[in-house]
Amino acid sequence: MPPPAVIAANPEPAGIDPFHPTSCAEAPTRSIVDDRRFKCVMNGTIAYLMGAPSAFMFAFLFPSVSIPELGLKEDASTWAKVKESWRLSAVTARQNAPVFARMGLMWAGSECVLETVRGKSDMYNGVTAGCFTGGVLAIGGGPAGMAMGCLGMGAFGFGIDAVMHNMGKVPD
User: Fold this and answer.
1) Distances (CA, A) of 27 to 33, 35, 55
2) pTM here?
3) C-alpha span between 160 and 158 (Å, rounded)
4) Which of 34, 47, 93, 156 has the most CB atoms around its CB within 10 Å?
């Protein structure tokens, strides 16, 4: 390690972390991971993969159909009712996973466009992208529904960014 006088005379350029230098093997991977198109595709893929189990869980916990509507007799066995509930939950998960993927792709895409236009990567991009995504997804609910969708998804974006930005910080 060079003496402190040499380090003070030759400070690192802004944006370069001297404690975690990028190796030659890491540089191509870093450029791919930092690419906005890659982030959008990965966000959509992860949202799809996470959306299926989430939709399955919510469909199982909060079924939209009651037992008589399943086409089962009242005296059907408990096992038959459970099997039919699981089958309907799986159908719901398959139907909702693409919705999660589109939402993740829309969110990441709008966030990448905002980063490009603004030239900054900060919390406002995530909040604005969430607001845009929520508004577009709630377009069928009219202006009031779009406002609520914008508010809800924007708040969700704020919460996610607040947690993610504070993850690496050590408390005092």
Assistant:
1) 10, 13, 38
2) 0.62
3) 6
4) 47
What tokens appear for 159 in the block?
Answer: 């919460």
Q: What does each C-alpha distance from 61 to 34, 64, 86, 115 come to in angstroms?
A: 38, 10, 11, 38
CA 34 – CA 22 distance, rounded (Å):
13
pLDDT tens sequence across 7-40: 445 444 455 544 444 444 555 556 666 677 787 7
Is the torsion defined by CA of 117, 122, 127, 133 positive or negative? positive
Q: DSSP secondary structure string, 131-170?
A: HHHHHHHTGGGHHHHHHHHHHHHHHHHHHHHHHHHHTTPP
- Give the integer Cα–Cα distance in Å for 128 and 133: 9
Whether the Cβ atoms of residue 72 and residue 81 lie closer than 8 Å to each other: yes
